[in-house]
Amino acid sequence: MNWQKYHSYRVFDEFLRSVVIDRRSYVTVSNEPLDFTDAFDEIQSRFVEGFDASKASFDEKAEQQFQGAASNTKRLFANLEYLWSMPVRSITGEIKRSYALRWFADREIVSGTRYFFSGDDTIANPGMWHLTNKYHEILSLCRIFKIVAEDPTVKTVEEAKLMIETLAYDAIYGEIDSESEFFTENKCSIYHILLHLAFPDRYEAIVSENHKTRIVSVFAHVIAEEAILDRERRISRIREKLYDSHGVTDDSDRKRRWFFYLEDVKPLWIGRKTRRDQRTASVMAELRDEEDAGELEGERMGNTGYRLRRSGKLVLSAKMRDRFTCVACEFHYDDQIVQAHHLDPLSERKQPEKTGLKDLITLCPNCHYIAHYLLRKSYVYKRKDGLVAELRKLNNS
Hints:
Helix content is 49%, strand content 6%. Mean pLDDT is 89; it is low at 292-309. The chain is built from 18 helices and 5 strands. By secondary structure, it is mainly α. The protein has helices at 7-21, 36-49, 58-65, 71-85, 93-98, 128-132, 134-150, 157-173, 189-198, 209-218, 231-242, 252-257, 266-269, 275-290, 312-321, 345-350, 365-375, 384-396, and strands at residues 293-294, 299-303, 305-311, 339-342, 360-363. The strands form 2 sheets. A 3-stranded mixed β-sheet has the order 1-3-2.
């Protein structure tokens, strides 16, 4: 898709070119070059060493801390604060512009919705954490951009993006030197924001650490047979695997940008805070997929998009073969209620057209749920004998 048609991605590139490459302020109209060394030294002195632990608002503290600071310092800080707010949906364009008005006259600041925007031109709504953690978020921006600005090998926007990607990724998955300037041990959403802005095709628009953790946990079964260690790649791969079967009526751009927040995807994982909740949600998601029976195994069902359906005839054949009786606990009620369980849900997902009667067994809803739960523990339960024996053992205990 064309990411550049949304302001956040275009502005990020323009920002890097202006601030990092050309050493010019992006949010103020002054053409005076930015002196990064002097600016970061003064930010370190006023913002870090002069930390204000009072209960005053961030705006009140910043205005006091930078009172009498050099214009060069204020311009750099205003640009970093702008970058913190720019892609955030919950902050209006007017408020985003107001930050620079602390120190600069209206005529000295760029204006218009191409710079200060909200709505679909942003990338996410990070929630209260991004707002209440603002001090640490800006510390993180200072640390990253100081390193990027001081590196003489960074001569293009693409080179700046690559270095930002490395620094942001390491901040999430590695360790930051606690002696480094502008160090903070707080988790910061700005790292996730920078990854996505730099390479939106590579990193999802998910700016919450907790959201990424839950998504990987709930949908672990979708990529269980793929050896993917990198969490960011795992999330992208989960999206790729679920893409055809979810969000089929959504706008194509919206679906690509915010897949995990679509109406038929978000309820599957949001609010699943404990490992037990996440495992349960994972099982239920797999059960829903398995019980969606159509006429042909692997049939492509049109509905603006396509999704795979299970074979209703094959499911019925399995139930008839087992006389509508659970093969584990022997539950039977008027040829109803029982369900067809696929011994290997992943193989069905990968090559559904090859599913045969031998791949299905009939289970009652309780045994069916437990069967999927057992699959989270061991692949030995993909075999009929092992699964049925364990289910019978549990039923008799």
